[in-house]
Write a structure and sequence with these properties.
Helix 11 packs across helix 12, helix 17 packs across helix 20 and helix 19 runs antiparallel to helix 20. The protein is about 40% helix and about 30% strand. It folds into 4 domains: about 120 residues, 2-Layer Sandwich (Beta-Lactamase); about 100 residues, 2-Layer Sandwich (Beta-Lactamase); about 110 residues, Beta-Lactamase (2-Layer Sandwich), CATH 3.30.450.20; about 250 residues, Histidine kinase-like ATPase, C-terminal domain (Heat Shock Protein 90, 2-Layer Sandwich). A hairpin with a 6-residue loop joins strand 10 and strand 11. By secondary structure, the chain is α+β, with helices and mostly antiparallel strands.
Length: about 625
């Protein structure tokens, strides 16, 4: 009799004693799906994550899974092998009759429980792995190319990582710095007393900060704000440290210049490429002190006339209100950043940094606000996003093309191969009558291939905007009748009624009759294909200077969220080889693109299970 496992009973006592309500084992293993099976692939134990993702319970069998490779065969082959463990990729498409596409790494291992051999399978989502890889890559990119130099220290203060910008400050490379004590490295920048405090901070695991002076390669001094921050590792009780060296040179220099002289400050401000605004806070009032020329030009401010005026009278209300909000938050923060937009002839985007300096003797505070123009950066990001979306779109088209074409071309050629074998048999038996009948079938298959290639050519011309339109006076109703006549036999086989409703006995328009016929043929062909009961109605009418052609059916309909995606080439609502209906996914695309080429509009209304109505509107 099959016995199901309680994982808590198999844990060492020290784990079991710490569990509450028998949930310790599940809590340990619920992050990713975990299952234990016997050699026949019957499930002995599955954690909550496995049951949720695979819809299987203890006592079920992997036979219900549709996967590549087949999981049952893989487990059985592993059981017969001498391997202790194995990792492989698994693509699961069907779980208990429900379509669910998931990709996993699967780690399979032998385990022995009470003398019986079982197999544990641990499923790791490829998507989660890829996200973790992206996070690691992004973190590495941010550390290497970020503006703030970063160094990572282990728990005893030895260097385990140093960004290139930090290497430049220290004039040493990572090979010279790795595993060295940070105290030795920065000793030449700190007085002995400050160095001792720094070492104490590492021992006592507490934050530390200090400003230092560095001499750059060209001999000029730069100021750096060193910040030491302890970081507790989630995976252990150890603590690492992050040491940053923020460049505060500009901030220091601005303070020195302000204290020396107001005139020299104004000269410096005007030579700063960023937009700079200085506000004085005095007696509960925010007053305009000064600004550089770039700011005055972009924000339409008269610097001379605005001097010492209340800030609300100088700036636009939205910017003024935002700055007042930021000023109130600077009591707890030394600096604050936000983005804003300014429209003056053209829309510009700015990254805003707000800091302040207190003049204690005069009981005044000066707010220094720098506006960095990030318009080009945002436009570049938008272009990158568009390029990324376009790349994804092209990749989807390529994938759809390969999937559909490999099937659509293989199927008729397989049929031709079958017919040739039959012809060989007929030749050997001199059954020439059957050969003549088969030749008709071969022609039908070849016509299908030819139609497919013609459709691909039509779509490629439409996508390249290379369609030639030859307009002439066209009998709209006549074109509709001709196509319905061709589709009558197929619809009768499915017991679907084909109806034509003409509001006017004769309806003519100046259009390209060949392309109009391809449009209607594609749409009516789709209606016949996807309608198994009910009727298909094609109607035409004239409203003022427009002609409308309406194709309405009672077929399966489409999911409204997929409609506009299905207008793209090779797109189908059902994808893969298991779809219910064959086709290259070009019919709607051709009809949509050709309608646009003829100057018409294309409107689809569809509901799943109720049918589809397509309305074409053309100028007379």
């Amino acid at each position: 009799m099959l016995k199901y496992l309680n994982l808590n009973e198999l844990l060492p006592k020290e784990y079991s004693n710490n569990s509450q309500n028998g949930e310790f084992a599940d809590g340990m293993t619920d992050a990713s799906p975990l299952v234990i099976v016997d050699p026949s692939c019957k499930i002995i134990y599955g954690n909550r994550s496995f049951k949720k993702n695979f819809n299987l319970e203890e006592g079920d069998n992997f036979v219900t899974l549709k996967s590549e490779p087949n999981l049952v065969y893989t487990v059985i082959a592993f059981a017969k092998s001498e391997y202790e463990n194995l990792r492989f990729d698994l693509n699961v498409t069907i779980i208990n009759g429900k379509t669910s596409k998931n990709n996993y790494y699967v780690d399979i291992s032998r385990i022995s429980i009470q003398g019986v051999e079982y197999f544990s399978l641990y499923f790791t989502s490829l998507e989660i792995n890829h996200k973790l890889e992206d996070q690691v890559n992004n973190l590495h990119f941010a550390l290497e190319y970020g503006k703030i130099p970063v160094m990572i220290l282990n728990d005893d203060g030895r260097i385990s990582y140093c960004s290139k910008s930090f290497e430049k400050i220290l004039s040493k490379n990572i090979d010279e710095l790795f595993n060295r004590s940070i105290s030795e490295v920065i000793a030449r920048y700190l007085p002995k007393e400050d160095l001792l405090k720094f070492q104490e901070s590492i021992v006592e695991v507490r934050p530390w900060s200090k400003s230092i002076i560095c001499i750059e390669e060209w001999g000029t001094p730069s100021y750096r704000d060193l910040q030491l921050s302890p970081v507790k590792l989630e995976s252990s009780d150890k603590v690492n440290f992050i040491l940053t060296a923020t460049d505060i040179t500009n901030y220091i220099l601005k303070n020195l210049i302000i204290k020396k002289s107001e005139e020299r400050l104004k000269s410096l401000i005007n030579n700063i490429s960023d937009h700079l605004l200085i506000i004085k806070y005095e007696r509960d009032s925010y007053l305009f002190e000064t600004a550089n020329e770039n700011f005055c030009k972009s924000f339409s401010v008269d610097r001379v006339g605005a001097h010492c005026k209340n800030l609300a009278m100088v700036l636009k209300p939205n910017l003024f209100n935002k700055l007042i909000e930021v000023f109130s938050r600077l009591e707890s923060e030394k600096q604050f950043y936000f983005d804003c937009e300014v429209e003056n002839n053209e829309l510009r985007h700015f990254g805003v940094k707000v800091s302040f300096i207190d003049e204690k003797p005069d009981n005044q505070r000066y707010y220094i606000i720098s506006f960095k123009d990030i318009t080009d950066q945002i436009l570049y990001q938008q272009q990158l996003k568009k390029a990324f979306e376009k790349e994804n779109h092209l990749n989807r088209l390529k994938t759809n093309f390969l999937e559909n074409m490999s099937h659509e071309i293989r199927t008729p050629f397989n049929a031709i191969m079958g017919y040739t074998e039959i012809i060989d048999e007929c030749l050997s038996t001199e059954d020439y009558h059957s050969i003549k009948e088969i030749s008709y079938s071969v022609k039908d298959v070849l016509q299908r291939i030819l139609n497919l290639f013609n459709n691909i050519v039509d779509v490629s011309q439409a996508e390249a905007h290379d369609l030639e339109v030859n307009k002439s006076s066209t009998d709209i109703n006549g074109v509709i009748k001709s196509i319905l006549k061709k589709k009558l036999h197929e619809s009768e086989k499915k017991h679907v009624l084909l109806n034509a409703e003409f509001m006017e006995p004769e309806l003519r328009a100046d259009t390209d009759d060949v392309k109009l016929e391809k449009i209607l043929n594609a749409l009516i062909d789709n209606s016949v294909k996807y309608t198994d009961r009910g009727s298909i109605t094609v109607s035409s009418l004239k409203i003022e200077d427009e002609i409308k052609i309406i194709i309405s059916d009672t077929g399966y309909g489409m999911d409204a969220t997929h409609i506009y995606r299905l207008l793209e080439p090779f797109a189908q609502e059902e994808e893969g080889y298991t779809r219910n209906y064959q086709g290259a996914g070009l019919g709607l695309t051709i009809a949509y693109r050709f309608t646009q080429a003829l100057g018409g509009s294309f409107d689809i209304k569809s509901e799943k299970g109720k049918g589809t109505t397509i309305t074409l509107t053309f100028p007379v």
